[in-house]
Amino acid sequence: MPRLSFILTVAMLSAFGLVASDIYLPAMPGMATEFGVASWQMPQTVSFYLLALAFAQLVYGPLSDRRGRKPVLLAGGVLYLLGSMGCALSSSYMGFIAWRMVEALGAAAGLVIGRALIADTCDKRTSAKVYAVVYPLVSLSPALAPAIGGHLAVAFGWRADFLFVAAFGALALLLALFVLPETLPVATRTRTGLFAGFGRVLGDRNFCRYTVVVCSIYCAWFVYLTQSPFLFVQAGLSEAQSGWLYVPLTLGIIGANRLARRLLDRLPYDRIVAIGITCFVLGAMGFLLAYTMGWRSVTAVVLPMCLVSLANGSSLSLAISGAIASEHGHAATASGMVGFCQIGSAAVVAMGVSAVSGTGFGVLAGAVAVLSCVALSACNPLAYRKQPAQRG
Hints:
By secondary structure, the protein is mainly α. It has helices at residues 4-22, 28-35, 42-67, 69-88, 93-121, 124-156, 159-179, 198-202, 205-234, 239-244, 247-263, 269-293, 298-324, 331-357, 361-383.
């Protein structure tokens, strides 16, 4: 296992993009009023951020395979800081979106290169165990970021949220500068065209199967993140109160991740992925039951999502590790591609759901149900492969 300082730094690099994505969720209704836009337009700011985050990962992966990890990481970090400060100073809706996209272009470096650093230093099995440490730390962001952001917005206004993420990103970059080694020696760097590894990665069937699992779970997560603030407002909750409702979800992610780490020594890798997807399906059934019965309480919104969060903590993290550590031999390119698919699909789905159907409990329930079926379609080939993952 790598040193603890290495793991913690990689976790911060992986988290700062997600902190920026989630921190202002409780403030979105108030921001819509300040910018003079409809409520459905604020979730689009998350989607534009995710789209920029997704496409940038396609470049960072092969670029770091050619130029090394640290130079590309530091350049992306500077963009992230500029974008965060620009968001804090924005005075219009379109200006805010523009700076959000700059922020996302920088944040992508932390996501891609953080995963590549793990792949550079660990085999597939060890990578899964490192992810089981990193992912709970990263998963704190969906809960703690809205909780922190809600209190900051109440005390100082929503602009303080982006000053906070800028400070968080600056700390992560300082740690990367002084703690992380360059894990890709010059002799092993790619000499072919920048995107030459894409074909080999896409030709890996296991990469594709794992990526379907990752995308379906992550899409459900972001549909929830963009729909739930408006459901909580309808329930009469304040920004600070609604921010804390993301904490149980993160506790579920952390608990599932810790359990998955222990099960790696007892069960085939892909069987654990299948168990997580089963929880995803049960959560979707919970949403549909609540919608059918006419339950609209906060509990009816949060409790089914706690089941989905178990899949987020187990299946999603293991599927990311499996996709990057497959037989294609292009770790950073695969990291960028799985990140592009993960975040790009979440952006398109979250944007499409809110634009076409608006916000509402029925919209949330239907979207999660469809996405759970997509995950289940990839589950069977993963769960019953003849070769168990312990040998990977």
